[in-house]
Amino acid sequence: MELFNETTDLLLKKGIEVRSPYIPYLQEVDMVEKQHFLAGWWGEQRPLTAAEITHLFSNIQTNHMGTAVITGFAQVAKSKDVRDYFKRGKEISKEQIEVFSKSLHEDDLPAPVTWDAQVQDTTESPFSDKLMLFQISLMTAAGMGNYGTAISASPRRDIAAVYVRLQGEIGLYAEDGLNLLIKHAWLERPPHAADRDQLMK
């Protein structure tokens, strides 16, 4: 925690860390009185809630981190199909960052900045394609989990619908990653229940 705080302070001093969005403190309890609180597709939209802001901001941050990692992996991957898969993942991530950032900007809130410039220009891989593809599969699965959590904390229908759409998009991307792992014989079958029907034959 001390290292995290020191790092954050240094980033802030150098002006390369975007502060998390600031919202005013509540002066009194304000109860929701109308169904319009859930609206979002048409008409006037209510401002984002603190939970919605938190999830949008953190999902932009994790996508930025994923974009930087996958950029580095795409530069060094030896297999063309793995490299193409990484490039596609980078494009998906960048598009999703734009969608989340737009929601924050509409409420005059800051969005995190990219880390792409920090990726070294090397083409020599310190890792195998198998390890890099497995790592991206893990990050994609974690991203889907983050989106699921964000859906549950986003009462505004338009925000929840965006997460559902984007989750489907990365779900298809994750499936293609598993197909690549299977194609290259890199996917170990996880422990599973006994196949009783097979045992009874």
From TrEMBL:
Name of this chain's protein: DUF3231 family protein
Species whose genome carries this gene: Robertmurraya mangrovi
